[in-house]
Amino acid sequence: MTAVLVLAGVGIIAMVSDAMGFGRWMRWVVGFGLIVAFAATFCPWEFATHMWEFDHVSLIWTRMLIGFSAVLYSLDTHEEGHYQRDALLIFSLIGAVLMTAFSHILMLFLAIEIMSIPLYVLAGTGDTHHSLEASLKYFILGSFATAILLFGIALGFAAIPAGSLLVVIGLCFKVGVVPFHLWVPDVYQGSPIRFTAFMSIVVKLAAIAGLSRFLALGFEYGPLLIGIATISMIIGAFLALHQSSFKRWMAYSGIAHAGFMVVLVAIGESVLPSLLLYAFIYGLGSLVVFGFFGLQKDFNDDIEALKGLFFRQKGSAVALILGMLSLAGIPPLPGFFAKFLVLAHSWNLGLSGVVTIAIIASLVSTFVYLKFIAVLFTQPKA
Amino acid sequence: MIKKHWAGIVASLVVFLLFLTSLAAFNRVHTTGAFEVPLLNWFAVSGMSVTWGLLFDSLSTLMFTMITGVAFLIHVYSIGYMADDDNRARFFWYLNLFVFFMVILVLSDNFLGMFVGWEGVGLCSYLLIGFWSNNRSYLTAAKKAFVMNRIGDLGFILGLLVMFLTFGSVQFSEVFSLVQQVPANDIALILITFLLFVGVTGKSAQLPLFTWLPDAMAGPTPVSALIHAATMVTAGIYMIARSSALYELAPQVLTIVMWVGVATAVVGAVIALRQSDIKKVLAYSTVSQLGFMVASLGAGATFPALFHMVTHAFFKALLFLGAGSVIHGMGGEQDMYKMGGLKRDMPLTFSVFLVGALALSGCPPFSGFFSKDAILLAVHHASPIAFYTLIGVSILTAIYVARMVFLVFFGSQRSDTHAHESPAVMTVPLVVLAVLAAGAGFYHPELELIMLGGTVILLALIWGLTYPRYAVKAVDDRCDQFLSFDLVYHALIVTPILASGRLIHSFFDRDIIDNTAGGFGELISGLGQSLRSLHSGSIGFYLWMITAYVAVFLIGFSIWPF
Amino acid sequence: MNPEFHYLILGCILFSIGVLGVLIRRNVIIVLMCVELMLNAVNLILVSVCEPIFVFFIMMVAAVEVSVGLALIARIYRKFGTTDISTFGQLKG
Amino acid sequence: MALLVLISLPLLGALGVLVFKSRLFAVAVSTIIAFFTATIVMRPDLLMMFPSISLPSLALTPLSSILIILTSLMVLAIIMTSEDSFGFIALLLGIQAALFGVFCARTGLLFYIFWEMTLIPAFFMIVGWGSGDKLKIAIRFLLYNLVGSFALLAVFIYLFLNTHSFAFSDWMTMVFPQSHQLWLLVGLMIAFGIKLPLVPFHRWQPDTYECLPRSGTMLFSGLLSKLGIYGILVVMVPLVPHAMLIHRSLILTIISIGVIYASVVALAETGFKRVVATVSIAHGSMLAAGVFSLTPIGIQGGIVQIVAHSLGVTALFLCEPRVRSRFYLGILFLSVLGSIGLPLTVGFIGEFLILLGLSQVSLIYALVCGVSIVLGAWVMLTLYQNVQSSSDTPIRLTDDEETVLIALVSAIFILGIFPSVVLL
Prior knowledge:
The complex is a heterotetramer. Chain A contains 16 helices and no strands. By secondary structure, chain A is mostly helical. By secondary structure, chain B is mostly helical. Chain B has a two-stranded antiparallel ribbon. The longest helix of chain B has 47 residues, at 485-531. Chain B has a domain at 250-483. Chain B starts with a helix and ends with a helix. By secondary structure, chain D is an all-alpha fold. Chain D has a domain at 247-424. Helix content of chain D is 79%, strand content 0%. Chain D has 18 helices and no strands. Chain D has helices at 2-20, 23-42, 62-81, 86-104, 108-129, 134-163, 168-173, 178-195, 204-211, 214-239, 241-246, 248-268, 272-292, 296-318, 326-339, 346-361, 363-388, 399-417. The longest helix of chain D has 30 residues, at 134-163. Chains in contact: A-B, A-C, A-D, B-C, B-D.
């Protein structure tokens, strides 16, 4: 909880920074604040209300989220004067953190909103047609989904069993799994890349955390979720085949990975450690890809522009390759073990269908990743 | 002089030393009996082991002596014959290598060691046939020789496999002692002997694998004399003689062997009648004579075969070297119809060649008469039909020999190249060989007056009849493609294989496998492409989709609660 | 047949109307209003099952959403001169 | 522990190469590795100088000893003769590390990890240093091999869940029901058959060999293709012996067809690299046939043939057409002899033992494979004569290449006369 307080403080400072006129320090303040927040997650002084409870698991989630955001922020080279945006980012992060720790359904709803609403705005800060379109889509679809989720909550209170299903659907929307993934590619592609990175790492993981925590309240949607998850793996893998936009490409790979994670979520609390590990490894991979590569200044979103990158800038190319290979699940990189866990767990439960589809999907997606990597080695047509 | 010929001289000396060794071994074997010299434990795998040693007994030492003797003479001869070739040194080291492998072949004390020599001499034959490598057709001939020999070798090695499975060893001593326990007509035994004989048909140019031998004449003439007349091609004879213990227990195979031999003798002789190239004539005659030996082996008579092998080694080497000297004199000309009347220009060559010719056509008292006589007798015991066939073959032999002699040495000169007698370094070996060819028969003289008289009269008749046709008029009845098995083999075997190769390559590999594999790729990427239409980009559509799915889930939930 | 049930029915009907509006109408503002309608339908249900805190929070959130939404729409209108959602279809595939 | 050092040495070497950018350094490193390997294998007692941390997951068997020595020597040879940039050599060393890993691994997980580790550097070699339509070829190579890897992964997961352990020892002691054995067999067949490659999984191979630079081709044909047969020997044979025995005749039939298939295709191929590549498909299939005969002698022959083929094919690829000096032609001819298995070359021992093993099953298989030997002689001699009578190429052999070639060829003949070194 202290972390949330720290974050809130930093957010407010950032918010008013321009007025106070110490804008040029802000970057350091925010970065430092994030680190302090991360440190604060270790401080023993915790208090639980009936609204939230930072138990062991949610603390791990929190550290993951704050840590990833901190690294992302520190690697971000897009110098821009608008520190309100950083403030919004931090508020959104607060929402994400709260999502991992809610113990009352109202808190879940609020967390989602706190997380989403700043992002509606941030998506549009690119001020291009794409950016605004992304913002609009995110806003309309997002609020629509929120309304459905709320409706579910309401029905739940009215003791109508279908309510929890609607809540799950609302969460699936935030996670971005098929068939509620339609917004993901468009929004990721349209938004400025620093926010895309934030969404594809922090928001996705927070949503996963929220989903698992919600199901932990005692709702049983295993078969449904597993079905959704397997379809997501396939869709994500196949649709990434023909993408020319890097952000969109990452969106689809994220959808596939979300599928893998949702399998673990659906299996239940018994595999929570595996879920955390997978989330961490996924976050790490995307962090490397985005942070060490995507956030570099001279990068425009076009994959074709990456031709021969390996021969131009070895450093970022190698980082990108490593991240990609990890996401692809090539041993000995961590991604392999994550996927391996999913396969092993689902085979253990006799879900041979899932295993088969998962193997096919990861075959395709491995191919997709390596095809992407191969681009880095092809000399551009002079 | 020395400087120019050092390679040849060294090589000849080496072989001469080997020859002395062979004499010593020969002597020791005939005084104190057979003895062995172990070399190394080659390899041992799960129970079965192959040790490698040299075995000196009467058979191997006989071969050893003959090979090194003839080889020495031919080495000396080659010094003169190859005098102007830039690659002499290489030539001589190939020759030495050949002698080495040949010795390995005859002295090894196990079949696997014999196989090593067996393939080794094949290799040297390849190298020497293709010695003049700037001529592509020579290379092709060399390749043909090697591959066809390999076909035979496959039979050999399969035979060895069966031998291993049956006796668990390939050592002569063990196999020949174990074979006594095996009942006659045992299937394994039949298989072994037959497969080994397949090897023989390759190496000793029997039907159906003999066609490489005539092409092998592409090599320098001394090579033809040494490898393709005197020594290598007789390896098969040696092998059957060596494993006669096995063959005796497989009479059916023996019959096959005999008839293959007879057929080969006939085919060789018939084809020889129509050749225009002097070396080709000799080559086919070699095929035919080898047929004689094999037939005799098939008749179960080992000694006559070996006897004929030795005499044949002498007179055929003599004939080849004589032909070589003729070719040398004619400046590389091999077509008999461009020669003629050479007996004036090269009297010495003519006389020794005549000796060889008479020996080949089996005229008493030359060696050929006695050995052929012995073979005929042996075959007569086995099968009269084969006997009369071989008599006919001998007559054909006499005819083509006469034709060759008359065309080359008699009549008028038919080309303007002025032939000259060869240098002493070439003629001396010729004389030595001539003496051997003439006298070797008395090693084992069994005179039968009927045979003697019959042969003399017959030969006189033949020579008288053919003289006007070839010596006076030199009728051109050449037909080099006469009875060509090559055309058949090409049509039936070579072309189909190559064609199927192209077919598989283009059809199975490209069309079937690649398209199947590629098909999956297409499928995947097509799927990826088509799924993209799901993301139409229109907000309205997305809203509809979400609502629809929510509805679907709700309905599904109400029907069947998860 | 207790009264809450009627409220529930009414709420569901309102919600469905909202959904239909969102689906059918092309004008962003109308869509936004329809979303608000959905939220209020939820509020109605929640009131009927007496969850007052919820209602307040939802109102607040709805207000935030509307403000953000209107700002966004204003910006879009200023930039493109239209508020028809069907004109935004560049990001796809 | 020593094995850990063994595996990490090449990786350090790779880093060093990237840092120092010196070919001499690369040669030095691989020499050191070679010596180290030799030490480990020859004098296990010397390992006491390493802190003895027991690593059950890594161990040396006689077979893997042979293979790691082969690997280190081959890599040394390749690096000595390589004219590619340092990135390439670094990848090469990386692959060497992975190969060491595979050969030493005693648990499925390590085996699979190192197995995959060979794949990625290989992929980069193709896309980075290949020629022609390299992207397409690399992707095809990748697709084939990924299918194989995932088949392997599926099998390993199955085994893991049934034994709750990754150790080979636990796997081998487990007895699986017949039907499962069949599936395991199929999966492993795909995994290893693609790597080897066996017909009909062979189509990635000729293009890849042709596209790679020479050192790459030597690496792929001489070492990487051996992974397949090693897997068969170490995983397949001990794991599903019954299924293999039951379906032996079927497998052998398929493989024999493949042997003939490849030999005949080789007759239709053109171009030095393609011909050698296709012939080595035939050799690989024959080698597999020896192992699948499941007779001690056949397996033994297979192992000998691994060494023989590795030496022979490396020498052959090293002698791609050059200035036709007498030395070049001679060495090329000797390598050709090695690859057609003339007696007194190690290839002969291998082929003879394989044929013997096959004939213990049925003489037919021996006959068919024997026919392929005849065809092989035909192909290789044609190849040699084409080079012999082709027009000159400007490149001539460097001293290093001559040294390596002499070493390889003499190894071929020495092992042919004293084969007991490579007989287990």
